[in-house]
Structure prediction request, 569 residues.
Amino acid sequence: MQQTITTKIANIKTYLRTRLKDQLSQSKITVQLCLLAVVFSVLASAVIVLFRLLIEWANNATQTTNLDFTVISYDWRVLLPLFGAFFIWIFAKLGSKRYKRMGIAYVLHKVKIYYGKIPLASIPAQFFQAFFALAGNFSVGKEGPAVHLGAACASILAERFQLPNNSVRIMCASGIAAGIAAIYNAPLAAVIFVFEVILREYKIHYFFPIMIAAICGTLSSRLFFGDVHEFEAIQVIHIPLDHYPLLAVGGLILGCVAAAFNYGLLFVTARHQHKPLYQRLLLAGIVTTLIGLIYPQALGSSDLAIDHVLSQNPGLILLLGLLVAKAIATIAAIGLGVPGGLIGPLYGLGAIIGAILSMAIASIFPSTAPFIGLYTVIGMTAMMGVCLSAPLAALVALLELTNDASIILPAMFVSIPAYLLAYQTFKTKPIFLQQLTIMGLEYKVPVVELGLQKIGVRAVMNRNFVVVNQQPQLLLEVMKRAEGRPVLFRNKQHEIEMVQLAMHNNDNASSLSHHKIEGVSDNMTLCEVYRLLAPTRTGEVYVYQDSTDNIIGVIGWRDLYQQIRQAQE
Prediction:
């Protein structure tokens, strides 16, 4: 009796898992997909919240946000980057060399080529090394580890649930949205960032799970940290229309600076890519420490620089020096391999450039003096939008972080000339894609394969087939009774062969022909089937669940070609 109940429960679980896979293999929005996004994004958000709490604890312990800039050169905290570099190196040595890559560029590579499948062992490496980088006051941001951790948590859970690969990618993207939303309390910006930077395409069945994940991440952030908009304190005053020509000039200057920064960062990355880790970390720690002796405001993500620009009323010369120091500190940290994000430092650089533009223009046109807050926000928007090739994500992010819709029009007005100048005149390229090129990681997928990656094999396979096990004498009789169904034969070597009836024109006789076919797991997508059949443009593959002994379907080239045609219509 007990065995019967156990068997029934096992059968029910198998049925439910099979039904779930059937639903998720389709390229359309489903309730199951949205429910899974809720579960996975809540768990991913919990990891991000823990990471953020740890960072805040470290900042409170070191009191880096309350530094006295007049005596910082005599303060022990100026050595934090060296301590941070040492602990990053120690943790990297303790971990496996297989999981040394991390950050947004690495996640982008995994999403494009491997459906977002990120190794479990990379989570502690990213978590603790990024913690030491941020606690060490390096010029890096929190969004880099948030993207990696959110993606890894969601994709690992999706693999444990044995979801189809097309759904694993959606869950990974959802984890990224949850991570960004949990860091910045900016749900819409998180959604736009995922589509504009990570996926680089818009699909409606992606949108709802990603949006749900961003909601979960935002609610998690507000539950622990309150409904705080990071730059809400910046006073943004509406600018008159007759000032817009000045904004256009500012946009051109911002485009030049953004292009120069991207070039410098990529140059340092390529130059030091193959040097030992300890040398790169030591150099980054020394450079950051030396900068901290002169311009401590340049350290950290962006808080110190933005606070100094808005509250200390610095002179133009000091701001120019701070801009150079912040740029060098960021290039040294990111370019030399310190784990962390780029958005935070870009906000700091943009704020400094905006303040410089405001002061320079005010010296000629005094009426622009009250608009330093607006110029600061515009600079932040343009720097992020141009450097990351994500103008919409940048605009929405600053809209949510300032909680002020008046920045939209002037920010758009500045971002357009900045972007066009950087990408058309200076031939700037998206920084994450260039980092992948330098690291030798793929990210380009042929258009045909990209479309087929969105459909699981279970959505297309022919479930009506016959399998004959090691009894060739039965094949002819089976073929007669198959009534057009595919007939598979498992030979003595346990290989699967497709059996077909070949007609001879001379004597109207017929015979059986065999050809070996490959198998794919039911978690795969049509892309893997295409790669197997594309060389000959003919043939079939069989689909198995759990093991090759459990064949559940057959896909032929004709079925695959029909899907390709439908995707192109």
In short: Residues 32 and 349 are 43 Å apart (CA to CA). The beta strands are 466-469, 487-490, 496-503, 510-516, 518-521, 540-544, 551-556.
